[in-house]
Amino acid sequence: MAAIDDLPPLREVIAAHGLSARKALGQNFLLDLNLTAKIARVAGDLSDTDVLEVGPGPGGLTRGLLAEGARRVVAVEKDARCLPVLAEIAAAYPGRLEVLNADALDIDWAAQLRPPRKIVANLPYNVGTELLVRWLTPPEWPPQWDSLTLMFQREVADRIVAQPGSKAYGRLAVLAQWRADARIAMTLPPEAFTPPPKVRSAVVHLTALPEPRFPADPEILSRVVQMAFGQRRKMLRAALKALAPDIEDRLAEAGLRPTDRAEQVPIEGFCALARIMARG
Ligand code: SAM
Fold first, then answer.
1. Could you give the CA distance from residue 60 to residue 32 in angstroms, rounded to a whole number?
2. N or C: which end of the chain has fewer CB within 10 A?
3. Domains assigned to the chain
């Protein structure tokens, strides 16, 4: 297959810079640039878009994003060992790559990018869910991103796109699908990474909806959902008992059966209950 750019192959880059992967930083690198370009394409047309990439590492996905035409990439990397390699990529794409040596959990990411903004990342497993929850729960909606294209362990990806009635359905599915369209765009075997992780991975693509699917106060909804799934084996009337003394009446008013369990309740049902709880 044709090379996506004129920079050296990633295996050479990693060897030349002695970039051995560190487990503590969740480092599983993608070295196939045709694969990283394919992941970049999941994010759609990038020519008019600033992209946030968390954890560029040796830059495989960064190169994919730039080769696919991203207007600008802001890449946040905690591991300072990667900076010289990333500087070489920045030199090959003048004015289009900015690298921040920082912890992605500590930065005000949106301030670094001009709209429209997309987030594309092969996330470090240890902070992936935490970052996703933050991106899904901003103070205002619509959020400051148009779409998220994110690599997760397959099991986390399944929880994001899960439907009611399945074991994977829980808080993450409600949070994600209440205000975004979410789908699994690709699955990857462990061998796609160096070193290979123990589990399969998947790329999830989320597109922000202009408005939530159903009206609800985000904080009340979050509390209801957290309580309901906190004791997911219990019936709703028991799991949500602490919410209100007349919880059975409120469940009935929301169109929910008090004997159902959280995993049977569609997002619409949780939103209806959150609206009833908002009355005090
Ligand atoms: N994007 C590269 C690729 O696809 O080959 C590397 C992906 S690797 C799974 C995750 C990257 O995130 C590593 O480079 C790691 O150093 C970086 N990282 C880990 N924790 C981070 C954090 N809190 N903030 C920013 N980067 C982090």
1. 7
2. C
3. 10-208 (3.40.50.150), 218-277 (1.10.8.100)
